[in-house]
Amino acid sequence: MTDDEAFARAVVDRPGDDTPRLVYADWLDDHDQPARAAYLRAEREAVRTGDAAGLRDLAAGLDAVWVARVSRPPVGVCCPRLAGARAEQLVTPDEIDEAGTRLGVEVPDELRGLLLNYNLGSLWAEPLVFPGVRGCEPILVSGFVSLNLPILDEGRIDEDLTDRTWCVREHGAAFNELLFLAGGAQFQHFLVSAREADRGAVFLVEDLDEVPGDDGETDDPAAGAVVRVADSVAAFLGLLEPYTRSSDPPPSDVNV
Questions:
Q1: Has residue 246 got a pLDDT over 50?
Q2: 122 with 222, same domain?
Q3: Which of 57, 105, 137, 170 has the highest Cβ tally under 10 A?
């Protein structure tokens, strides 16, 4: 691991702590990278004030994956609610590139950042709730995208990017440029677009079995509707809420 990656990892592992962020910014200044240092300090101030309007200008010219990794939602994917759930086995940029090649797409920047930061898999220990937006009911999010994780036990949910994306694609050509992002406890699928027109946007499919196939036939077109629920992975993460047993309405009928 390079020094730069070690500093970035410290920020990711302690997203609510300003110290790693400021130490990283000082290190960047010392290594002739003032633009990235300025962005880190501005991101900290944006979170404090709730005003992220100026971050876009500061991010111009910086690596988009790096920006996503160190920025908190809804700007980036450095998400406090995911920090405690990451896998011990980290994923590498080369592994993400290989997965994209197998899937025939370029993995969107924020999805790359999410994999590099967390490589999550199952969230059964600390599930999250996607609230009811754009006509959708609340959904218990039970797992996030991962890559090349070993199967540790029979209870582990496989949320592998390539495996789950191929499973989704079996339901028709409409899914050919959508990538798996997260799964709901009732088999809902959150998908990220790799299409040029809406790249990075997040879509929800409540029931893949009801999606119209290439022949256009389905028992219930409404049940299989593909609904855009967020304009980016970062915005999607910003909507997530912690699950409590008192959630009303309950996001699912599963026991956690």
A1: yes
A2: yes
A3: 105
Between CA 7 and CA 11 the distance in angstroms is 7
Q: Where are the beta strands (DSSP E) in 109-171?
A: 121-122, 128-130, 139-144
Helix (H) or strand (E) holding 211: none
Q: Answer whether 0.90 is exceeded by the pTM.
A: no
Q: Which two tokens stand for residue 156?
A: 């582990």
Same structural domain, 42 and 97: no
Q: Is residue 71 part of a domain?
A: no
Q: Could you report the per-residue pLDDT of 126-164, keeping only the tens digit for each?
A: 788 998 776 677 898 988 898 887 665 444 455 789 988
The H-or-E segment that residue 43 falls in is helix 34-49
Residue 232 neighbours by CB under 8 Å, 6+ apart: 74, 110, 200, 201, 202
**Helices and strands (DSSP H and E) totals, the chain:** 9, 8
